[in-house]
Amino acid sequence: MRRIDPVRLPIAAMGSLRVRFSSPETVRHRPTPPPGHPQLARIGWPGGGVGWNRFHASGTNSGPQMMPDRFDPSNWNIAWGMALSGTLTALAAIAGGYLFYRALLAAMRRLAAMSETRLDDLMVERVARPLKWALIVIGLTMAAQADQGLLLAWEPLARFLRPAVLGWIAYSLIKALAAALELRLDASEDPVAVRSHRTRIAILSRTATLVIVIITVGLMLMAIPGVRDIGTTLLASAGLAALAVAAAAQPALKSVISGLQMALTEPIRIGDMVKVDGYTGRVEEIRMTFVLIRSWDERLITVPTGRFFEQSFENWSRKNERLTGPVLLHLDPATPIAPIREEFQRYVTAHELWDTRTANAMVTEAYPESIELRLAVSARTIGDLWTLRCELREHMLEWLRENMPDALIRHRLEVDAANARANVN
């Protein structure tokens, strides 16, 4: 037999051969071939390790080509019986889990149909899809305990799928519970209570879903050995890292804390009419870090949540929407007030939007060339008050033009000499 040194072997000497080199570890564990085997040659490595490698005849002078052992089909050791058994067990587990899911879903829907409310139906429909995959994963996990071949193939995948499916179920339950609670709010007759509960549901459900997502992703990453080792290594420096992250993310953390404080203290709620930084509108959505306000002209104003705790703002519907609004009339100083007050009282009393609480006419200012008459009215809601004020202003101006035209302010310029010349001409 020939002993070949693969490092010192000239390329010209290998022109008619293509040699497959193996690592010393692979060569060391290869069994000794029978003497005089025509396709094997003894190879010695400079770093140590002697074994047998196979030579393949080649008519080209392309030089040596290295092929790893793991890509050689002749070196693959596949237990086809175990693979077939694992595949059949996995199919049976999937079929069993799906059949159990269909039976359980039918029972849940039957129980939900016995209830008069739609809340049960909503909960069942939201958790149906994640429940199906959860039962299939549970079936595969139980079957893998009885089949070694399935266990070897399933366990690496199960490390990721189990926390993912559990997180999906928890996420769906939170969403279904929030939707069910909002559905119950639609039957309430107290608009203030509805806004309060809807605000808490929105903020707390988003907080819960954020926590679920973070925990689920963390569990999936911890299934990776490298990530788990890095987490263990960094645990000693977690204190300094937490301080650094807190200092860098101070604005974001401040907004998140403000969002939680918003849910507990409720300075504003979804549907409240507020005035912030000169903008007036309805609170349309409350997030953890910002609040969306819809103005009367359908613009959407974004305000950070911390703004409502650091600076003052106006909430026009904190307890209820009953407000009193003014209509200001600037009149001539010589105008009699009694007829105007009488017409104002008559019109407001007959108006359908007036809630019978406030209807006052008072002179609030007196200037050299005018007086300010304030007509104060009230209504049940902010929208009704706005409509009532606009219609009252239009009616009073029209009534003054028809019945008391001298009450409207006019700027006059009288020159006696000019009038005399105009008369002569």
Describe the structure.
- With 425 residues, the chain is of the alpha+beta class.
- The chain folds into 3 domains: 70 residues, no CATH class; 156 residues, no CATH class; 85 residues, Alpha-Beta Plaits (2-Layer Sandwich).
- Helices cover 52% and strands 17% of the residues.
- The chain has 12 helices and 12 strands.
- Strands 8-7-6-5-9 form a 5-stranded antiparallel beta sheet. A 4-stranded mixed beta sheet has the order 1-3-4-2. Strands 10-12-11 form a 3-stranded antiparallel beta sheet, covered by helices on one side.
- A hairpin with a 2-residue loop joins strand 5 and strand 6.
- The radius of gyration is 42 Å and the shape is elongated.
- The N terminus is likely disordered.
